[in-house]
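thought: user wants a sequence for this fold. calling inverse folding tool.
action: design(structure=
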């Protein structure tokens, strides 16, 4: 059991270089396979596709297992937008008592708290704590192959 924390922070605007990859415009079914049809190949820039506010966006690698029920796993790469106002249900990066963590923003009786995606971690009340929200997580990049970092 390891709390989900931030490993590193990188600003998107510092590295905004257009890198196009092939985008095949066909819907891939997750149920029964369909016959291969005609498809169109275009180029897709992931920065244009994933990031609306490059100057206010950064990516951060996470460590730990406290967000696994929300699909965030150890060593995933999150894309975070600082320009978005956080709302109930958003996953946010938070400086909590001087340490960065990743949690879901929730409210109970109009009181904000931070919720983990793992029942082993209790909710964290934000009242009377030194907390600063660093941004709203807008995307998660998860590798399906094991990597050694």
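)
observation: tool returned 149 residues.
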């Amino acid at each position: 059991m390891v709390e989900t924390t931030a490993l590193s922070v990188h600003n998107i605007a510092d590295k905004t270089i257009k890198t196009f990859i092939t985008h095949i415009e066909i819907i891939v079914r997750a149920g029964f396979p369909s016959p291969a049809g005609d498809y169109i190949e275009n180029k897709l820039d992931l920065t244009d596709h994933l990031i609306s506010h490059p100057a206010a966006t950064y990516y951060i690698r996470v460590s730990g297992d406290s967000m696994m029920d929300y699909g965030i796993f150890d060593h995933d790469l999150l894309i975070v937008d600082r320009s978005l106002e956080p709302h109930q249900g958003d996953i946010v990066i938070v400086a909590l008592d001087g340490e960065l963590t990743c949690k879901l923003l929730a409210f109970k009786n109009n009181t904000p708290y931070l919720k983990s995606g793992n029942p082993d971690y209790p909710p964290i009340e934000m009242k009377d704590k030194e907390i600063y929200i660093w941004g709203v997580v807008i995307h998660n990049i998860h590798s399906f192959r094991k990597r050694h970092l």
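thought: summarizing for user.
answer: Here is the designed sequence. The chain is about 5% helix and 40% strand.
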